[in-house]
Fold this sequence. Notes:
Oligomer: single chain
Radius of gyration: 22 Å
Distance between the termini: 14 Å
Order of helices and strands: EHEEEHHHEHEEEEHEEHEEHEE
Helix content: 25-40%
Amino acid sequence: MFVDKIFKYRTFNEFSITELNNRTWWFSPANNFNDPFEFKFVEDICIPNNRDALIEWLMHDNASQSEINYLQTASINELLQGVHKLVQSTKESHNLVLADRVKTRICCLSQEYKDPLMWSHYTNGMKGFVVIYNQFKTQNDEFIPSIPVDYVSEPPSITFESMKLGNSQDGLELNRRLIATKHNRWSYEKEIRFIACPQHGHEMLSRIKLRDGGILDLPEDSIFGVIVGEYMPIDHFKVIETICTANNYKIFKAKTNSAKYEIDICEIGS
């Protein structure tokens, strides 16, 4: 029904209405998360004493010819020294995300819009609403760093192999293990996390600048519409309707299916 959209479940209150009306996201400090297993991982880094393995680990997609020549002629001690230095640098850079959880801020959205548990837990029993977003960009037309949460049965292991940052995808995968992994009991949320970490060494995670402690201003075309819950009070609906009409947002309604444990969505006025 909704292609290339993401969703934010909201209870109806002053903060959620301000966020909708002003087209903003609030990034919460990472230390405010309520899951006691957030950011849990096992460090299992074993550096091999093998020349070919070390060269392969040090090689990256943008390696210059001079770098390649150095790797091919360097002694194993020189290679080990370079590996240890890069491993330590990578650990220090990524540990900033975990060590200073007040400055690392995360905004959580979902790729799911009609899960009954989500509607129950995050919209006050379908008295709230879901905002439908179009895109992941800032007002300066920059992409906002996002990481889909990986749902697993055991905490992820950070190994020597996983710390190889040969390209941007390797960096994304390492960050996923560190800050976007949860137990699979949470998998129904289909969560996607947007990260702002001003002190991080990776430009992708440090580029987002927030105002007033944690607010990100979104562009005018960022919101597609709103899904209101079946049990939203009429006076609350009128507030939502006024904002949507003024901004040309579509309005939908979520209803419980009379024959199944499912949520049905229909457009209001269609």
